[in-house]
């Protein structure tokens, strides 16, 4: 009985396999090291330039809240490398007294912002408010009239839910779930 001989692999084929395996191991090690040393940047709202003349509420049906202002935010980068904030998406929600949070606006167009290593960077993004309510029982209309009337607080509260996309060495990294509230002045104009 004859023993079958296994075909021998050439030394070049064997060298290529070892090289590919070595490259895969290096990539895995690089990803693990990055995951260990990369810290998530902190994003916080620092204020707005919204004032009483930044938006208005119409006094006829449909009740419409419209306006525009700038939102200031800060990015604290604890990492030893820089990156760009490529985009920010954020629905703007009205914080109703009944616990509801209807969406009343969005962010305007956004330019990339460079964030240097180990730094705090301030930036602005535009906010558009546009909301229509079909009746006066709507929480947005009721709360604005209550808070902005004679004995009201003179302020309304908006919730911003930031979803940032960071660009680092050509890779886009989503950073989600940053929710912050901001009090702003009541609209001065009720048309």
Short structural description:
With 191 residues, the protein is α+β, with helices and mostly antiparallel strands. It has helices at residues 11-37, 139-148; strands spanning 42-48, 55-57, 63-77, 83-89, 92-94, 103-107, 113-115, 119-133, 155-168, 171-185, 189-190.
Give an overview in words.
The chain is of the alpha+beta class and 191 residues long. It has 2 domains: 10-38; 40-190, Immunoglobulins (Immunoglobulin-like). It contains 2 helices and 11 strands. Strands 1, 2, 3, 4, 5, 6, 7, 8, 9, 10 and 11 form an 11-stranded mixed β-sheet that branches. Strand 5 (92-94) and strand 6 form a beta hairpin. The chain is elongated. The N and C termini lie far apart (103 Å). 19% of the residues are buried.
Topology:
Layout: H1 11-37, E1 42-48, E2 55-57, E3 63-77, E4 83-89, E5 92-94, E6 103-107, E7 113-115, E8 119-133, H2 139-148, E9 155-168, E10 171-185, E11 189-190
Parallel strand pairs: 2-11
Antiparallel strand pairs: 1-3, 2-3, 3-8, 4-7, 4-9, 5-6, 5-9, 6-8, 9-10
